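#struct-pred

JT: dropping the chains for the assembly here, can someone run the whole complex?
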Amino acid sequence: MTLTLDTVERAPGGATAPARRRRGRWNAQAVVITTVLWLYAAVCVLPLLTMILNSFRTHLQIATDPWPIPTDPTLENYVSAWADASFSRYALNSILITVSSVAISTAVSLPAAYALARWRFRGRDALEGLFMSGLLIPFMLAILPMFYLMDWLRLIDSPLSLILIYSANGIPFSVFVLVSFFRQLPGELEEAAFLDGGNHFTVFLRVMVPLVRPAVATVVVFRFVPIWNDFLMPLVMLRSRDNYTLGVGLTTFFGEYQNDWASLFAGLVITTLPLLVLFILATRQIIQGLTAGIGK
Amino acid sequence: MAQTTKNASSVQRAPAIVVALFILPAFALFAAVLLYPMASALGYSLFEWRGGTNLVRFNWFDNFVVLFTEHPFVEQMPRAFLHNIAIFAGTLVLQNSAGLFLAVQLHRLGPVRRLFQVLYTTPYLVSPLVVGYLWTLLLSPTFGPVNAALDALGLDSLAVSWLGEPATALPVLILVSVWQWIGFPVLLYGAALGAIPPELNDAASVDGAGGWRRFRHVTLPLLTPVIGTVSILTFIGAMEMFTLPYAFGGATGSPAGATDVLSVLFFRVSFQSGASNALGVSSALATLLFLFILGGALLGRRVIRAQEEKLS
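RK: done, full complex below.
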């Protein structure tokens, strides 16, 4: 209902003008469509809401009443997941691996992208093409060779194996985004910085990098999500529980706590929370990033 | 082109050593951890191995022959493959009917559409593992709210063990996968709709075209490129899908292999079979999957291009 009002109020914005022109005929249809849109929004959100609400209920409440209404909210599920089931350890590992991987791939991609975008040298186009080919590589094909490479480096069951893989895997995308941003910057900035006595390194660090900060934000957000959510690589590379990430920890947890439904919901929330926070902080960047290159 | 010439005077040169210092860290990491394993991967499938990476001999295409002739691959590979295809087909149909409908209706809404876009995209950002486990709990026959709701609506007969029955497990997998993914097509279709100049629709109205005809002859042709791109991404995602089926059915694709897909089969052969030549056979499987995805994506692009030419 509020939505219908909203639409009419905002109609001068333009998009709803045709609907307004023939309001009489379209009203019934508009109500039906608005209802459908809200229903589907509920289908999207209610499962996630149920997950959050059930994590504050007890096992007994969930078993006796299927509706996720927390009449008597409790934090005990979080205590049992976080402390007893070592989610604190898993979360720490996930944070360590995700943050270092994103930091390393961004840190090495920035100078490479700058050189590819701003300098002329032999083999530049071929090199850029090689980096871009990494965007097309199907991960499945690389898993076994990567596993044996890490085995050879004695890095199986070490977070370092995942950090290396994710860092390398992030380079094509990061270089791709950063090159296009560096190319858009006007050359006068560099010239002025050189006249002020800068060298290649100081100009890059003090002048150019700060200018591509929005692109760095895009790269960080869009590498963070898939690394945080990845499950197959940790499943293959990690062996001991102390090194588990949240994903692998969650599978163990679902085996061991399968009769403690309430704690399972808390485990799911802990695994998802950092992403929800990121989504709330960076909604605009995420939506814009996902639709980059299409219209608008 | 124009930009290159405009900036030509300002494009810098740097001494080779400086160029190397800027590029080398990224290149070394990329080459050692990604490029080198990738290059060796295709070769793995042409050799016989013993207990991990001990090379026995070059055996041409024997590993591929094994996949098509020997138990359990000869039964499991086609089954898993058909499941991948079913996931792709189901997703394709739903995102280009329901997804397109949602995108078109949202586009008419005006600025409030942002709110819906965010709500529809939320599941897309949640880990597929969490999504899988969450739906396992929600669909539980003992305490799940889904069956409780069906009971409340008087549909007790529908309140089955959704993920426990082979007949329903795959359809549920497809629907949950669509539930998670569809926000992405809706978002992209919305962006493409926003890029269509309103004058085009106005002109068609003046010419007397009704709503459906305008959609069919003005909007839809202009959406073809984005529908094509999304379809190819859907194809790749459906063929490589691992985490969601694993969350539902584990490494064996339970119940009774109903949620088994190629990536899960690959994982089983590579890391759980204990077979001596696991490396050779699973590399052959990965190579086949890679070639199929590559071929499918290239074919898809040709179809889309032909379609675009026909419509424009």
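JT: nice. Chain A touches chain B through 104 residues (CB under 8 Å). Residues 218 and 285 of chain A are 7 Å apart (CA to CA).
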